[in-house]
Amino acid sequence: KAKEAGRARMTLYDPAMDTDRAQRNALELDLRMAIESGDLTLAYQPLVDAATHEMNGVEALVRWNRPGHGPVSPEVFIPIAETSGLIESLGLFVLRKACETAKQWPELKISVNVSPGQFRNPAFTDYVRYVLKQTEIEASRVTLEITEGYMIQNPQRTRQSIERLKSLGVKVALDDFGSGFSSIGYLRQFGFDRIKIDRSLVTDITTDSRQREMLQATVALARALDIPVTAEGIETEEQAIALRLFGCDCLQGYFFGKPMVADQINDLLQERREARVLRRIAG
Ligand code: C2E
Ligand code: MG
Ligand code: MG
Ligand code: MG
User: Fold this and answer.
1) Which residue's alpha carbon is at the smallest distance from atom 10 of ligand 1?
2) Rounded to an integer, what distance in angstroms lies between the CA atom of residue 265 and that of residue 267?
3) Closest ligand (CA of 252)
4) Which residue in 29, 45, 121 sits closest to 77, CA to CA?
5) Which of 51, 76, 151, 218 stands 20 to 30 A from 40 (CA)?
6) What's the pTM?
7) 94-107 pLDDT tens trace
């Protein structure tokens, strides 16, 4: 019997699984090295005022150029960092680097993504406090973006964590709203400072009237609760116009700017300062 079962199991054996595991281990090892040797970088994507299209903030997005492989998406390596104990150091790096960099942009707010694994850590608030102090950035300029996955499992603890973070003076936003199990209840009880509507809700609004109505209803809901709304994934002017009309006060997407290196943000700010001077002279 045991022998048969063993054989049955053997026939289910799939060598591809070993390869998968080996590849994953290699990736994890490389990621660990990248974090330790400071090889991760940050890209910054403009956040713009929906009415004027003027950049008033940036979202920091982590980037990893894996040696011998090229760029790896954060959607691939963040989950791996989560399950391999690397998320703490990765998250700390991102937060510190983003705050440090944003210090040179007093006219911009800075948004930083926080993953469930960081948020779950009871010491998270302490290390946010520590980074704020260390980098001397004004807390009110910093927004932490969290996704809803963890909240559903631990609503009570989530609410407490959000309160503690807000007591430091930072803002807390709900990221990717509309992509998962979001519900009205969550919006009401957690005290988010802002909601970011997921790109998947934005994509088809100018071609699909049902999508448009879903999005409109979602924005209306947030506004009924007095929570300001950012829409992400804006790729066309048409979308930008519609989303402003529906009540989003902040927009983000390739139409306004892709994620870019810090120097490019510097250039944009410099151009803007020069344009202002010219306008003053002309006017
Ligand atoms: P997210 O926080 O929702 O970030 C927005 C993602 O949408 C970014 O992808 C951005 O490049 C992309 N995006 C923005 N505008 C457009 C657009 O108009 N069209 C399209 N097609 N895409 C657009 P990215 O950088 O690949 O990041 C993916 C996700 O990985 C992020 O989604 C976030 O959940 C996570 N992530 C990124 N950086 C970090 C980080 O530093 N820490 C943590 N914990 N998660 C991060
Ligand atoms: Mg985000
Ligand atoms: Mg998002
Ligand atoms: Mg998203």
Assistant:
1) 259
2) 5
3) 1
4) 29
5) 151
6) 0.93
7) 999 999 999 999 99
